[in-house]
Amino acid sequence: MLQMPARVAERAQAEFIGLAPILRMSINGGDLRGLAQLLLDAAGRDENNACLWMNLATAMFALELEQPGSAVQQQALSMQRTYTRASSRATNFRLLMLMAPGNLAENTPIDCLLEDSPVELTCHFVSPDELFPTPLPEHDALLVAFSDSAANSPLLERLSPILDQWPRPVINRPAFIANTERSRASQLLQGVPGLLMPPTYPLPRAAVESAALAQGDSCGPAAFPIIIRPLGSQAGHELERIADAQALAGYMERVHAPALYVSPFVDYSGDDGRFRKIRVALLDGVPYVSHMAVSSNWMVHYLNAGMYEDAAKRREEEAFMDRFDAFAQRHAVALRAIHERCGLDYLCIDCAETRDGQLLIFEIDHVMVVHSMDSLALFPFKHVHMAKLHHGFEDYLYRLRAAATESEQT
Of 307, 288, 283, whose CA–CA distance to 296 is shortest? Predict the structure, then answer.
């Protein structure tokens, strides 16, 4: 029987809990639907409880109920736009996060990384009429959490000159967030020794349908196979490998997006025919391992790679994570270039190693999830390595504050 932690259900009706407790339930098979129904019933009785509505929206997004989740979130935001997740321990740092309305892929899920930390998170959902909370809460640093979507780009442009003059440290400045967009990232990362990120072309539908795509010209890859997905898609939604013109025609019949990303497919399978995708977090240029998924399918997602069911895969992941320092050293030039060219203080990289030893980059972004929520019985090794990133992030925050204090005193 699925379990609903009583403490989570109790807190979610009384205070803003953020994503972490809800994601933990989802990953560990908790009764997330039961929690959502409980919160929905409570919201019917307590219509003016903004925190309750916001927690309900998060639960709905975790259940992939996008439309009702958005409606519930807007109800919460109509009451208030600023929410504070209190620290579970004595507060030792106050982080103000600028966020955008949207689903779980819209903002940096830093509360999953800083779960059970002494960091107090204040989440302000930005709007054109309210860029910052009023009154502005005391904070030691500010983090720009939202993604570079078309809807968010005007807000990032407005925030950029303001945050350039901000009196507190700013993490992930708006001017650099645009560098995570797939085609821009692929341009930035060309010409780095040992790094391979195939060019990604954002193309209108008509250009994809044209025969020129298969022949190769200045606006598209030279030959099949290619990778294709709609602009703005995440988590592999409508992402496919296309082998020839006939397969492309079939894809275009099924998918009606007005614009698509197209890039060459790189076979990154190992000698055993399996594919291995690695997630690395870069914090102030320092790499930390998050996970490695092993799959027989080229489109690797950790949740469907069979890592929970296959002990041999988990042993391979453990061995890789234990040897991650060697991986980071092999690809030190590439990782340093990503940090320097992208400009973000914190971001994640989905990548692989090719058979000839190159670091193949699939995506760089600051909104990927990293966490330490997997079963301790199945993944004891993960908790050890994720603790390094958890403590590394806390130490990074303290260094920022110390540097800011020293600057004020000189």
Answer: 307
